[in-house]
Input
Amino acid sequence: MQSGDMRPDQVALIAKNLGVTDQEVIDMNRRLGGDSSLNAPIHDEGEAGEWQDYLVDHSPSPEALLAVRDETDRQQKALTHAIGVLNPRERRIFEARHLADQPMTLEDLAVEFNVSRERVRQIEVRAFEKVRKSAKNRIAETQAPAALYA
Output
């Protein structure tokens, strides 16, 4: 027990009446103990330190967030560039099937282009492969200069 904590029987009674765990009662009692500075010294069994020394931030570091954002931007630019290698029909089918919030069916696209569903599927597969290859090449190109300076 730390100074200001309640006796175990008090904790158990309050926890039972409120329908919470004993630990929740203890935690709330400690929070209600008043404000104190995070720079206040802690003297725990001969160890000196401050409350802030025990704070843990589980969020990603700014460097990790920046790296993720840079990678996402690079991939977005590679995809945008890769879509540019498609002809208008391939682009329409690719965007309608892979980039739309509500992807169009093969049947709908077949009607739009006056071809069979199988032909639309073949065009989609070819377009997807072109985009994948172009994006992969673009990413490799942008990584190569960076590797020279590493």
Q: What stands out?
A: The first helix runs from residue 8 to 18.
